[in-house]
Design brief:
Largest sheet: 5 strands, antiparallel
Radius of gyration: 30 Å
Shape: elongated
Number of domains: 3
Helix content: 25-40%
Strand content: 25-35%
Number of helices: 7
Strand order of the largest sheet: 2-11-10-6-7
Number of strands: 18
Length: 326
Amino acid sequence: MADTAMWPLAPLQRRWRQWWQARLRPSPHCTLRQRNLYIVPTRAGLVFGLTLLLLLVASINFQLNLGYALTFLLTGSAIVSMHMAHATLRGLQLHLGPLTPVFADRPVDLTVRVDNPGRTRHGIALSLQPEETPAQAPVWFDAAAQAQTAVTLRWVAPGRGHWPLPLLRIETRFPFGLFRAWGLWRPDAQAWVYPAPERPAPPLPHGGAQARPGGPPTLGPADEHDGIRPWRRGDPLNRVVWKKVARSGELVSREAAGTARPPTLWLDWQQAGPGDAERRLSRLCAWVLAAQARQQPYGLRLPGREWAWSEAPTHRDSVLQALARW
């Protein structure tokens, strides 16, 4: 890094690289072909080339037939290694696995599936582009013939939010390390990063619970029903509305009128205490997790917007995404 910073052309090289990488459009998958594969000699390859040049000059000056043979043999080996390095990556297909939301300061697991339609490939490295993320050690692997290989990278997002993924770089120096072949891929996906919950978890706020519209439930016989709700684990089969299941395919259960449901707990921005926005978001996130663990119906109120309680299984993620975008 120090040598690069002292090089006079480093700023120009950085600007050219940024312009070139900005031309890479996001795509759901990547197939490595001639047009998106690049190859250059490594430092060892440059030294090797200089050595071959010295051998050739010495053979010419001293008329050494064995020198000629050795020089041409090594040159042919270098040319073959260049083609082997390029062929190691050519034809591979990259696919990104599902992304799991994480909390701030936690790494996002990027699972890349590498499909190899040909023979076994050796000495392949997958890494994040260092210009967009802090430098990390690449993950080296071998791609089995006619098989899929899963490679997991870890990426720490700059903060909470909905972040596009960084560039991924796949490269190889197989077989002799004289040439480096590589390709770049920008996945067409974004990762959710929720605010970090406050630790230790604060107690849920008091006084924010409100009864559901229509007043408190009235007690009645067990066979009376006042509505339908999504099916929950543990519901008896005799409460499943099979006619609705047959029509819509959605598994729902009857709600007994005598079943008392807890009131909705509103998690309010104003109740999150003093402090900056990040501290309030952290406390609200901790409250959401605590209410979800207690199966307490809850809603969220932020300045100018609110998210009412919903029995849909995506309610938790919807609320946490709202906190991440705030």
